[in-house]
Amino acid sequence: MDILRAEAESILDDLPPQTNADRYEVIHIKSPRADHAQTIFEDKVLNNVELRAFIEPSPSASDGISTKLVRVYYRSDVGIESTAPMLRGIWHSFRLDPYLIYMFHRNVPGYFQLSSSSSNDTLLNFYINSQAYWMLWSYESATVSTNAVLISRISPGRPASYPSLHAHIKRYSSLAGHPLFLAVATAIERTTYIDKFMREQHRRMGLTEQFTGFSHFYLDTPQHHTENAEETLARLSNQSRSASSVLVGLADMMQHLQLLTSVVDAFLSSSFSGNMQGIDSIRRQDAAIKSVGSILRPQVKERFGYVNFVKYRAQNQLTVV
């Protein structure tokens, strides 16, 4: 990986000038190591000057648990909405592995934990590409601190994912001392999104089957006939378009489910508590995250079957129309 890191560092050093953003949404979670009941969740909007102060290591970080997250925007036509110097500043202050920018630059899908680039094994780096956003973070076990960059993809027609992700980060902030805390929030946010999306696609295919009559639910239902051929053709065209869009959406769901499979496997194989120098709260968090994994694993498996079920129905209706 060191060879790839060399290329990654060159990408980071040669970042082209981007949009000069002066508005950054940030989250800061703080709590004593021994008492997560006193967790403080702060979210605010900072300008460039305030952000530079925010990304610097907190003087009191060694006395408690700290999670910092900076959100930036990505648009396919302009790139990341931030200046190259600011991005490099975030990367270096948050001790993010240069290889993370390489993976982002290549739009690598999925979840990864990166091995350390030095003999200092107290620093871990993580990468998630959920298609809707990239979550990149470092975790320092010596100070129990997480520093993250959330790169939100802005695309026409794409539903906003940040409000739901923000809510789940806040809801599960008691896990903030664990390396996989942000992976938990991401996994649950994506699961919620998949379920909402699949319900809508199921409904749309039901409407198409009702129109065409090619379904065991409607075999005995008389079909409506119209003498307006243009109207009928227009409706058939719309139904064909609907079924085709469902298939595209289901391919997207397969990507999400593959991501969830990797993340859930990481939950179940988590063994970070063994390296946390006797911090009992991390051990409890590790057990809680394993419990989340054991609940999600069979559900993810069944969702693969649900996607295939709706996919088969959409393919059948495309054949009909």
Write the layout of secondary structure elements.
Blueprint: H1 2-13, E1 24-32, E2 40-46, H2 48-54, E3 64-75, E4 79-80, H3 84-93, H4 98-105, E5 110-114, E6 123-129, E7 133-140, E8 145-153, H5 162-171, H6 181-212, H7 229-268, H8 280-320
Parallel strand pairs: 3-8
Antiparallel strand pairs: 1-2, 1-3, 3-4, 5-6, 6-7, 7-8
Please characterize this protein's 3D structure.
It is a single chain. Helix content is 50%, strand content 18%. It has 321 residues and is of the alpha+beta class.
Order of helices and strands: HEEHEEHHEEEEHHHH
Helix fraction bin: 40-55%
Mean pLDDT: 84
Distance between the termini: 50 Å
In the predicted model, the low-confidence regions spanning at least 5 consecutive residues are: none
Radius of gyration (CA) equals 23 Å
**Main beta-sheet strand count, sense and barrel state:** 8 strands, mixed
SSE class? alpha+beta
Shape: globular
Number of helices, counting only DSSP H or I runs of 4 residues or more: 8
What is the number of E strands? 8
Strand content: 15-25%
Question: Which labels suit this protein?
Answer:
321 residues, alpha+beta, eight-stranded mixed sheet, 18% strand
